[in-house]
Amino acid sequence: MRTYEDLAVWTPEPIRPRWQLVLRFAATLLCFPVLCALWLAVAAVLFAVGLFADAIAAVSDSFERGYMRFMDNTLGAIARLGSWFVSWPELRHEGDTEYYRAQVDRRVAHWTARASAPRAPKKPRPPVECAIPLRDYRGVGAGYVAEVALAQGWELRPTDARKEVRLWWSAASHVD
Predict the structure, then answer these.
(1) What's the pLDDT score for residue 172?
(2) Which of the pair, 7 or 133, is modelled with greater confidence?
(3) Which residues of 126-163 are buried (b: 16+ CB within 10 A; e: fewer)?
């Protein structure tokens, strides 16, 4: 049995100390505007360089793909700098299992509604994969996410339960 199929190891995260959460929340209030400004500045620079690089991209497809991958990696790395941030709901509801159960139920129901929606003409297909982040299930564990998702028709994908739970809509395998 694979690790992601053994739901017994997907337990809730330990409750973090209140003082640590308060300290992180205060640091979040100070650092978030700086991180947003940094992201916008880097995005503007990459856009400006991209305008000049467009001349090269007209000749070389591999340059364009490489530049787009570089932009994605760079902006994604800046966004990941804030992974330690603590939001107000996290500060208020740390250890509240009912809050996290409601979060998981709401998030899985949202993705189920999107995935099971009929395909509209001339529109992209509904999403067949999703990821539920740790922030949504910290107090109840990834096992609860798997329970709720499996009951609504999702299948588990290989995942790291300490970061997110990845799901795949099983009805997507049926051709429409």
Answers:
(1) 60
(2) 133
(3) beeebebebebbbbbbbbbbbbbbeebebbbeebebee
**Locus of tokens 């940094």:** 38
CA nearest 133: which of 65, 64, 79?
79
Query: CA dihedral defined by 33, 36, 38, 40, rounded to 10 degrees?
Result: -140
77: three-class secondary structure by DSSP: helix
**Helix, strand, coil percentages, rounded to 5, for the chain:** 65, 10, 25
Cβ atoms 138, 13 nearer than 8 A: yes
Q: Which residue has the tokens 């205060």?
A: 26
- What is the tens place of the pLDDT at every residue in 121-152? 888 888 889 999 988 999 898 889 989 999 99
